[in-house]
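## tool: complex_structure
## caller: assistant
## args:
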Amino acid sequence: MGAMNPTPPEKQQALVARLTDACGGSYSPETRRKYYITGPQWAAAYEGHAIFHAPTREPISFERVIEEYGKIGIGYWATHDTDVIPSEALGTAKQDEIVARIGKALADNGLKCSMVTTETFHHAVFASSPASESPEIRKYARWRMCNTIDIGHTLGAEFAVYWPGSLGYQVQGAVEETETLKWYAEGLNAACEHDIAVAAKAGRPTLKHCMEAKPFEPAAEILLPTSDAMLAFINSGLLTHPEMVGLNPEYLHELMWGGAPRAALARALTAGKLWHFDINDGYRLKHDVDIAVGLVNPLDWLNVLVLLRSHGYNGPFNLDFKPPRTTSQAGVFGVSFPTAVDRFITLWEMAGEVMEDPILKEAGLALRAGSGIASGDPKVLFEANKELMTLHELIGHRLFQILIGANRGRVYSV
Ligand code: GLO
Ligand code: MG
Ligand code: MG
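## result:
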């Protein structure tokens, strides 16, 4: 590659925009809006801060986020209570005023609110979790969850999500686990019961309450580290309304502990509890880097979407990623979100191609039909099937071909 003249600051946005256009392959806002793709307030407003990291972007209002999502074609918006309402204004007239402004911004830009979630982790009061030993802190947490339900109904949300944030501990022996789980259930029970009352009054369906697991970070020892642990919790007998509670698995959170996201999703599907899905990407056994969908594990993502498409999953795909600290605020809306949405749609369409591919279809059917030779002798059975089983590897190869477009004749010549 030849040398290039330096790009002065005032020309950098134009360069990024020109190269983004040159990438091609973007979908129109109308097409993007056909999907149940949801944009969280906190993802676009993330300023790039972390324990060791200073912010790289300025604060941004919900009006701006909603407007930009509208332009991109992200049809749904989601929020934590305190993303938009300062803690001290929760439950006051100021909250009503802010919620009314949100409603207007959504209507003005043709978006809907899909989901609300209670922030039970950032504020100092939650240092020992929302299921703290202190009954007064637990009472406050319950009030926060109920207040979020009210906001959800006012904004027309369908879902409430619970990522408890720090439902765990750092120090051995500091927490009595069964007690904490019971207290956590009391919070969810209060939210469900409040929801039933509010929904009845408003003539709306109750929200779908979705639990979200993360195996570690910020707490070291987590009481409900995986979606599977949460499934067991839902069925533990501690919940008064287990039928109202399902899962919001996050792709990376399942990968972080070394699990297979696709298998975790399959278990949630089998239990009828896959209701909401946080989409992003990252690495096994690392921190919650929240990279945008498809940038690390596109082949795995393709397979995830094949699974969801073939099971008719029709819940939200929530863009719970963090635009990198190296991306500017203009880049968040010019590059991060549109490219994430477009990779998702491309992978979704590719998943359709996988499901229709004649080679994959025939290989799948052949494997399921077996050899036709029955025997009680395992050696005979193995011999009868061993050539068929070579198809497993061929299936992997075919999926790779579809991923890179080789099935459509794409060849590499350089
Ligand atoms: C953090 C979580 C967080 C949740 C959000 C919704 O790791 O993924 O973003 O999804 O709080 O409850
Ligand atoms: Mg998440
Ligand atoms: Mg995450």
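## assistant note: The radius of gyration is 23 Å. The longest strand covers residues 112-117. Handing back to user.
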